[in-house]
Structure formats: structure tokens, C-alpha cells
Amino acid sequence: MTLPSEADRFWTRSAIDLSRLSPPSPAHYAVGAVVVGPAGNPMATGYTGETDAHFHAEEEALAKLAGRGFDLSGATIYTSLEPCTTRKSRPVSCTELIMASGLRRVVLALREPLRFADCTGVETLLSGGIEVIEIPDLGDAVRDINAHVMGMQTT
Ligand SMILES: [Zn+2]
């Protein structure tokens, strides 16, 4: 797997910082996401629960870009947690939204623990030809921010 660049680390930290804005809830993770253009320009940000308690971070960020004619094929979405593949409250997963958006590159800090649903975001994105970069050494911050959820894990 490709190693993350310094810019990848910077924007993943930004996504983690954004996740702190997510209203704490035992029902979902606090996640942040940033879409960054090919020139290193931030295009949109989002965090889980920003406009609706059921909306995920990636969904919030992509909604701000939808229908505006942006070519996202050279952009990257940075997210603090692996994009979901199964959700109870919404018909379309963040993984599907990312693949439909035209984004070809995803950088994340932490894979989703087996807590709410069996998440296969990384595998699904890779099988769709999307580059995925993980920065697991930034995962401790994500675990700390989500201690209210992950603390309930039995594994
Ligand atoms: Zn999601």
C-alpha cells in the first residue's frame, strides 16, 4: 500500500479535528471528513450529525459538492474513520456515495471496529478501483474521540 504523504497526514488530522464537532451519541461514531482538490485546495468539509443526526461525515461533505458540476476525479476525501458499507438509517452507504461522486482516492485514519455493522469500506473501495490509504498511527485520536462508543465494545 502507498505510504501517506505529509499532506495526507495534515488533512487526515483536519478530518479528526472536525470529528470533535460531531454531537456525541451512543448511536454513532463521531467522524470528520474533508474533500481536498488536486491542487491541495479544501473543497468541502463535514462531520457526522452536522445537518442531520443521521447524516455521516462523508455524506455531509459530499452533499455540499453535489450538483455543482465539480470534477472530483483528482480529489481526495479524508475521513477519520473507514466509510460505512451498511447502515440502518439511510439507504445509501458512504462507500457508495464516494464511488458515485467520482472521487478516486480515499485516505482514512482508522478502520471501523465491529460495533454497529460489519464494515467492508476499504475492500469495497479497492475493488472499485479507488486508491485507499490508511494512517493507523493517527487512529488513537479517533479512538479517544469515540471512547463513548468504542468503550462499549466487548472485543
Ligand atoms: Zn457512513
> Roughly what is the average pLDDT, rounded to an integer?
92
As for the CATH topology, it is Cytidine Deaminase, domain 2
Q: What overall form do the CA principal axes indicate? A: globular
Order of helices and strands: HEEHEHEHEHH
Q: For this entry, what is the oligomeric state of its chains?
A: single chain
CATH architecture: 3-Layer(aba) Sandwich
In DSSP terms (H or I, runs of 4 or more residues), the helix count works out at 6
Helix content class: 25-40%
CATH superfamily: Cytidine Deaminase, domain 2
Strand order of the largest sheet: 2-1-3-4-5
What's the Cα radius of gyration? 14 Å
Ions, cofactors, ligands: which are bound?
zinc ion
| Count of structural domains | 1
Distance between the termini: 27 Å
Structural class: alpha/beta
Which band does the percent of strand residues land in?
15-25%
